[in-house]
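Thread: Modeling a multi-component assembly for a lab meeting

Hi all, long-time lurker, first post. My supervisor asked me to bring a structural picture of a complex we are working on to next week's group meeting, and I have zero experience with this. I have the sequence lines for every component (855 residues in total). Could someone generate the structure of the whole assembly? Inputs are pasted exactly as I received them:
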Amino acid sequence: MSELKTSPETKQSLHDWLVSDAPTSRRQAKLSSYYRAWLTLKSNPMAMFGLAILSGLLFIAAFAPWLAPADPFEQDLAARLLPPGEGGYIFGSDSLGRDILSRLMYGSRITLYIVALVALMAPIVGLFVGTAAGYLGGWVDVVLMRITDIFLAFPRLVLALAFVSALGAGIENAVLAIVLTAWPPYARIARAETLTIRNADFIHAIKLQGAGAMRIITRHIWPLCISSLVIRVTLDMAGIILTAAGLGFLGLGAQPPSPEWGAMISAGRKFILDHWWVVTMPGLAIFTVSLAFNLLGDGLRDVLDPKKNK
Amino acid sequence: MTKELGIEIEKLNVWFGEGDTHVNAVIDASFSVKKGGSFGLVGESGSGKSTVLRAITGLAPDWSGKITVLDEVLGETRTRNFYSKVQMVFQDPYASLHPRQTIDHVLSEALHLHGFSEPDNRIMKVLNDVGLSQGFRFRYPHQLSGGQRQRVAIARALVIEPEILLLDEPTSALDVSVQAEILNLLTDLQAERALTYLMVSHDLAVVGHMCSEIAVMNQGEIVELLDVEDMRALKAIHPYTQQLLDASVQRRRVD
Amino acid sequence: MTNLLEVKNLCVNFPTRNGVVEAVRNISFSLGKERLGIVGESGSGKSMTGRAILRLIKKPGILTADYIKLEGQDLLKLSEREMRGVRGHKISMVMQDPKFSLNPVMRIGDQICEAYQLHSKVSRKEAVKKTIEMLEAVLIRDPERVFKSYPHEMSGGMGQRIMIAMMLIPDPQILIADEPTSALDVTVQKEVLEIMDRLVRERGMGLIFISHDLNVVSAFCDRVLIMYAGRIVETCRADELSNAKHPYTQGLLKSLPQLERRVDRLAVLQRDEAWRTAPSVSGIVEPERA
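Re: Modeling a multi-component assembly
Sure thing. I ran the full set together rather than chain by chain. Output:
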């Protein structure tokens, strides 16, 4: 691919190959559909802005040891609570004299870790439960959806709190707690989507080919549900980050001295009046990333929403 | 040859819902389709004509009566073996193809489910048979016109080499010129493969063109069975059939 | 006598990633107090033409024309606000499926009253009276009951009659009917067409009847425009449609299976690239000077 893109002519022909209306191989058909989706996404500047921020975040998280100006755990009590720009601390220093910028950079790893785990687990649980309930119907539907309702009825943070206090504080438990509270909406979406797809002629057609329920759900219904779940996940991502930060803030998520953003805010709240930057910097980081996910989610909706593809 | 039946239906009743919502969709329907013949079910919307097909294919679960397909009396569930002999083409080609699957994918899966070898050759052959060039093989449904989609739907039904094809208004969503192409295709395929057709349509002219025997349905009941020659001569016994024939002929005459 | 509507060089274009799609290309036609049929296959631009007259082309579609004159007034020069006064009031439109045109959570009578009151300043009582009259005019047997019903309680044919009642109640000069009977059964189709025909005649309106069905159009209209690939390829009197000269029209007619006559194979339309590029035929008829 990289050699292909060197000259403008080959780049042009690659474009033509990718948008061709008559693909000649399975691979071309696949790549072509991805490329078209990318073109649609590219035409949405806000989504691209969100994507850029998230790519930046990914880059920072991957190269934190090289990018960070200081060790995030190294304390310097002589340089406590320095305002931004002073003493070489671009974002200032916290109550133990640690560099806030470095801590944010390392903290992005934790944030991404939480986000990735939740984003993988919650929608998948929801997808399994929702499509099974929607497609199989009958008592399976009743049982699964009542369980979902029970989970939905709990206030999210309270359930997470109860769960974490039972299992003990820590990032993994925080993630589990979030997943436990986050999956029911996905199950509902997947079920609703399945109910409309279930009676479509193309599902009847594959049934008449003799395909079983398992095959229909996994091969034919999932691909159509996944897009709406992906959209929902990116839009929920902000909430997930905030819940994780909230748990951190309450001391139930990441434990000190871990530079998790929520925990950083929690540690800084004592100084909020006199030393605003200690809480503002991680707060801004949470805000920026949440916003980026929301913008990307909006853009993805345009790309993936099957109703928009005529 | 004369006696062999492809489909035989006796006293078929199909209903939906229970209690208050109970609706009888088909009431005491009986007819039979000769092997290699074509039979048409005609009626207006809500007459239960499509429901008969659904009962045969197992898509309408609540039915009573006796359905015999190729000398096999059907029970509650349909086996894969049944589906290897009986296939269906749906009305709306825009709804009957999975929006995220290429034509190649659709045909490969059908072949895979029925354990056919050499899928590549079979796919190329069936595309050729339904009049689509190989260039269509890796396209998605949204890259095709309505007529091309219906050809794909026919290819999907034929690729596993069934003996009976159930046609549920196969051309009503298409333009007339495309309808002519698809009807010709179906005629050719029947001659080549000795297929048995059971066709459902609201269009008497289409059924008259395709089928040799016709059953007229009204509100769930078969009101009349007639020969295509009688239909062409507009010789109907039941007043409802006469009314349908009049409506189809009259709207063409300039007033 | 003058033409009610005159359209000159109407174009509708849709820019897409792979170039501009020309849905309607440079067509001109006129409408008097007559029933004008527009026939063509899907994608021929016939529905787009109907929508374009009411300036209802959705973005990113672009509508251009020299003029669209309604009784001498150019609709293209009106503001969007003034245009709203034209839609429904002077030109009404009946769509294919009444299910999508009626508000499912509003009673039928209220919807018709609202449509009426929107354009004519009358009291509610007056509007109700007029609505009942209108429902009677479309041969609804029990107008009081229908008045109080919801759209889902109506059959397709009933729904389409209600749509016709709703569209005709402000007394428009022109009715555009876009495939009004395609979703209906043949026996119902006839009734609905007859009702529409009678009302249009009685009121001296112009009717634009858009359909893919050549039989219906030839039986029901006075004059026909045949569209192909966004152009008018032929125009003729409706009762002479069977003698149409253009190979496209002939091809369409031949490809229809006939109930009374048996053919082994249906004729298949052979499309000619030249039809696509040939200039549009004018559908303008100069009004007869009385």
